[in-house]
User: Which sequence fits this backbone?
């Protein structure tokens, strides 16, 4: 087995026995990018995907151009078996760039003289979570309420990751499924309302009143989410939700074709009860964007204060600097510029690890400098310096939440 991953070093820490090489679907868009990597490979399984583009993610490349180049390379070097893990909503009628780009790759693969299989699963859930399932857990973990998109009637046929893996194993080990498109789905149709309720019970939380959020309000919220990076709460995800994730065939059709019946969601959730980390993840899901927003406002406010505040508002520091022959106003403007740059970097989510180190260094630097110049600020009634301590903790928590993989 050979894995094509973004970070082979991190991958090897988790699975040291598996060979891995670096692959970037943003750039591997030609046949030659893949030809040499397929030496000795008998079958290819493609499961690359993103919810939306942006932040260095080219959805056209990741969903269509790179997979099509990979499939062409398989044909060129003689890899006959290819499994494409697409999505049940990869349909022209869905109309999103997510669905259209997925469909482009599916359609291209179907034209090639290979033993291809296209898998179009419904919502995939499992022990961990990412993207849409993380958002569902986050909604389930909210205290006191269970918000719903619209009336909560959006439907899924959720399939557990173990059953999807079993499906992949079966189709890759035989030619019986060659040149077929299958829809891996669970045995039941589950509405969004029911999904949130199931996750809430799994997390050990008491039932909460369901609050229907009208679709016009959700569309405005999705537009705002787009500006903040999109993700499972963005416009594309909302349109995919409206289109549906049930598929075109009865669940029994897939079970008959694949030779086993996927398990029900209640059964699979009960097999692995939620742990403390699952509850933390659900409860922190919506706190993460809140923390980032608060930090942006903090640095932006600090920048504006440095420019607009009169010298009299920091007279103690000004007096200390004057005794050293320095002028406080130019320094205030310089520090304001630094604060503004930090706010902008956080807004565009530029290198979170670097930004955490920069923020910690700047806050610590401000604290040490002000302690030297005016130690009495530690006793200031409004906590001018004391407030820096929780800010340092806030930054440390934020960077942990930003690291998704």
Assistant:
């Amino acid at each position: 087995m050979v894995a094509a991953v973004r970070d082979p070093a991190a991958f090897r820490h988790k699975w040291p026995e598996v060979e891995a090489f670096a692959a970037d679907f943003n750039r591997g868009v030609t046949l030659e990018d893949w030809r040499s990597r397929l030496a000795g490979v008998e079958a290819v399984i493609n499961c690359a995907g993103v919810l939306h583009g942006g932040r260095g993610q080219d959805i056209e490349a990741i969903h269509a151009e790179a997979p099509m180049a990979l499939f062409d390379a398989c044909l060129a070097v003689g890899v006959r078996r290819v499994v494409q893990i697409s999505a049940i909503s990869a349909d022209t009628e869905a109309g999103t760039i997510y669905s259209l780009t997925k469909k482009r790759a599916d359609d291209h693969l179907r034209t090639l003289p290979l033993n291809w299989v296209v898998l179009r699963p419904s919502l995939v859930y499992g022990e961990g979570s990412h993207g849409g399932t993380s958002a569902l857990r986050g909604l389930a973990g909210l205290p006191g309420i269970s918000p719903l998109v619209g009336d909560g009637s959006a439907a899924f046929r959720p399939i557990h990751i173990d059953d999807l893996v079993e499906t992949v194993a079966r189709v890759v080990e035989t030619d019986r499924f060659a040149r077929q498109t299958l829809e891996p789905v669970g045995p039941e149709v589950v509405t969004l309302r029911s999904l949130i309720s199931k996750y809430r019970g799994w997390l050990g939380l008491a039932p909460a009143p369901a609050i229907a959020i009208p679709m016009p309000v959700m569309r405005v919220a999705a537009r705002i989410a787009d500006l903040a990076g999109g993700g499972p709460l963005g416009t594309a995800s909302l349109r995919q939700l409206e289109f549906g994730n049930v598929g075109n065939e009865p669940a029994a059709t897939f079970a008959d074709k694949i030779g086993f019946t996927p398990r029900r969601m209640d059964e699979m959730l009960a097999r692995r009860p939620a742990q403390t980390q699952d509850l933390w993840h659900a409860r922190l899901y919506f706190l993460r964007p809140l923390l980032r927003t608060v930090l942006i406002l903090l640095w932006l406010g600090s920048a504006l204060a440095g420019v607009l505040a009169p010298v009299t508002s920091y007279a103690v520091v000004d007096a200390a600097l004057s005794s050293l022959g320095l002028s406080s106003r130019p320094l205030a403007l310089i520090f304001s510029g630094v604060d503004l740059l930090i706010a902008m970097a956080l807004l565009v989510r530029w290198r979170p690890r670097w930004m955490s180190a920069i923020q910690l260094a700047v806050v610590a630097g401000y604290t040490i400098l002000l302690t030297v110049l005016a130690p009495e600020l530690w006793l200031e009634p409004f906590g001018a310096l004391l407030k820096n301590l929780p800010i340092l903790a806030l930054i440390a928590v934020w960077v942990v939440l930003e690291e998704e993989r």
